[in-house]
Automatic annotation (TrEMBL):
It comes from the Bacteria. One of its GO terms (molecular function) is sulfur dioxygenase activity. The keyword Transmembrane helix does not apply. InterPro entries: Metallo-B-lactamas, Mito_Persulfide_Diox, POD-like_MBL-fold, Rhodanese-like_dom, Rhodanese-like_dom_sf, RibonucZ/Hydroxyglut_hydro. This is MBL fold metallo-hydrolase. Pfam families: Lactamase_B (PF00753), Rhodanese (PF00581). PANTHER family: PERSULFIDE DIOXYGENASE ETHE1, PERSULFIDE DIOXYGENASE ETHE1, MITOCHONDRIAL. The keyword Hydrolase applies. It comes from Nonlabens ponticola. The lineage of its organism: Bacteria, Pseudomonadati, Bacteroidota, Flavobacteriia, Flavobacteriales. One of its GO terms (biological process) is glutathione metabolic process. Residues 268-462 form the Rhodanese domain. Keywords: Hydrolase, Metal-binding.
Amino acid sequence: MILEQYYTKCLAQGTYYIASNGEAAIIDPLREVQQYIDRAQDDKVRIKYIFLTHFHADFVSGHVDLADKTGATIVIGPNAVTSYAFAKAEHQQKFFIGDISLTLLHTPGHTLESSCYLLKDEDGKEQALFTGDTLFIGDVGRPDLAAKSEMTQEDLAGMLYDSLHKHILPLPDDITVYPAHGAGSACGKNMSSETSDTLGNQKKTNYALDTNLSRADFIKELTSGISAPPAYFPLNVQMNKGVNSSIDEVIKRGVTPINAAAFKALADDPEFLVLDVRSPQEFTAGHVPGSWFIGLDGQFAPWVGALIENIDQKIILVVEPGREREAVTRLARVGYDNANGFLYGGFESWKNAGFDVATTGNVSAKQFLDGLNDGSIKNAIDSRKSGEYENSHLAETELLPLAGIHAHLPHLDKEKTYHVHCAGGYRSVIFASIAQANGIDNMINVEGGYGAIKKVAKPQQLITL
């Protein structure tokens, strides 16, 4: 038996490849499916099944493409409704892959169709549980994504409690839990950075599996402190229920090279968004006027989904040469299929053409603190999440989380200068870029963010819980 986890850090997402005696299965595949096809060919196995633990909200799955290319059967749990052919499995239904088996355990709560898959080896021994968003390492899936008028998040939380107690807690302690997500995903509240663990250890350390926690207390705990889901979540759910453009077509269009003159014409067209995916340092030093920064070397796809409100937005890219395909692929992972090409030759070609170059100011953490102390800096913005801010912040800063920037923009004064920081200097540059694109020109980024600020600040300057 072969069992391999493919973990994508940008999405904090785990996909699983399982093979035995000439057959293979994929659980929760990413949209770019050639990697699974290549692996199966290397192992000389046939992909027989594609299992979805549920309809994911935070990324677009490649299950339909993979089924078309391999002839594999898509398997989804009870209550699933799609526009493509699939096998609707029942609770306790068993599927054989070579000499091993996967048994579907219907575990509604995160969503109504949510299911886990219990792996038994060649000897029939229970080895692993693929839990999707039902059970994470250190947490469980949020219960609000499938809430509708006839079903509240409290109803779903109660269903999840029942699922955990009926179908997961009775399982052996020595089996390995493989979830769909880890720390950084918005599908839970406090996930661990670990990507797997024994069920026994989770029974000891995961609050959601505490048998002393009553159903009512579980519901209260699970439904408190949930931040609003990114706007793209329901759109990705619908995409995962339907048939989408082939990833091959999306990439082919997205990696179209555009010379500087043609790129400028598109950049001047309000239908197009110029997305700069280079490093924060490169962007602040010089960028296309009106462009947004969301760097590839960060939580790129989730921030794209959270901030670009129109999933059908036409996008043209400024990207480090050689990373064009990566940028287009990672946009497509969250359903942004309208990348229309990239600036050929990178930003150097823009400069060489003599077009206007915009910049974003930078100050060091020490310069920032000195300015706050002497009064020369008056409008300081903390763009981190509220939990980060509450844990520790500077008294002189106003909390304006990046996720809510579109609501904050109308309240910013175009005549004022703003200094913005985050934790490390990634989100603050995103914040500054979107503000500048909306006419708030005087944006200054604090290099190194709060991490650098804490190193040079006096203890009395920091407000901590």
